[in-house]
Specification:
single chain, D-amino Acid Aminotransferase, Chain A, domain 1, alpha+beta, 4-stranded antiparallel beta sheet, D-amino Acid Aminotransferase, Chain A, domain 2, about 240 residues
Length: about 240
């Protein structure tokens, strides 16, 4: 007799969305922005608008908060921030560039590239590939050679007094909440916020490159495609600006 197994589509197809937040003693960092992005991601998957999560049980805790929303469930949990994340924030990361095989801003109409969906297997496969090459992470490139994003992060770079990131709508990628917040407060330390497309050679010529995400804050790129990069005095200053 064949046993009938009921499988949640979220488990089988990645039919759901999620957000990862930095839980601080004051509460989930940038909560409103994350909930707004969760709702946008849900809409891209034709999910109903997500309910507001009940977070009072996590008051005073510190860690990595994840809000997962599928057609059947809204779940919130907290775990410790991985040691690898803390190490990358402190010591920086070695990054390789890789062609994603897409044209910037020209995805199929059914593309979920602008949603933070549960279909994250290829993202982590990219990071495992980097690890086999003795690197920590990847910068994805469009077919035209533009830098887009990392598998789990946004790209931020500094050239002179210009602090920049990729324009998400034009590039067709997931909006970066940490990167957007950083640019919004950049003028307070004398930097000009900019969103523009950038080629890999232009990125390599930048004074400093970071990968930004909610838990890492900023991880400075100390090696790009095997070329070592000098550490920047701006890294601790911007991390402090972000509250890390």
């Amino acid at each position: 007799m064949n046993e009938q197994i009921l499988v949640d589509p979220a488990d089988l197809l990645g039919d759901g969305v999620f957000e990862t937040l930095h839980l601080r003693p004051s509460g989930p960092w940038l909560l409103a922005e994350h909930l707004e992005r969760l709702a946008r991601s849900a809409a891209l998957l034709d999910l109903p608008a997500p309910p507001t999560p009940e977070l009072s049980a996590f008051a005073g805790q510190v860690g990595a908060m994840r809000i997962i929303y599928t057609r059947n469930l809204l779940h919130t949990g907290v775990s410790e921030i991985p040691a690898s994340v803390l190490r990358e924030r402190r010591d920086g990361i070695r990054v390789l560039s890789a062609d994603l095989g897409v044209t910037a801003g020209h995805r199929p109409p059914w593309s979920l590239s602008a949603a933070k969906s549960l279909s994250y297997a290829s993202n982590f496969a990219a990071r495992r590939w980097a690890a086999r090459q003795h690197a920590d992470d990847v910068v994805w490139l469009s077919t035209e050679g533009y830098a887009l994003e990392g598998p789990t992060s946004s790209i931020v770079w500094l050239t002179g007094d210009e602090l920049a990131t990729v324009p998400w709508e034009r590039a067709g990628i997931l909006p970066g909440i940490t990167a957007a917040h950083l640019l919004s407060v950049a003028p307070s330390v004398g930097l000009r916020p900019v969103q523009r497309m950038i080629t890999l050679p232009e990125l390599a010529a930048a004074d400093t490159i970071w990968l930004s995400s909610s838990l890492r804050g900023l991880a400075e790129v100390v090696s790009l495609d095997g070329v070592r990069r000098a550490r920047s005095p701006w890294t601790p200053r911007l991390l402090e600006l972000l509250g890390f």
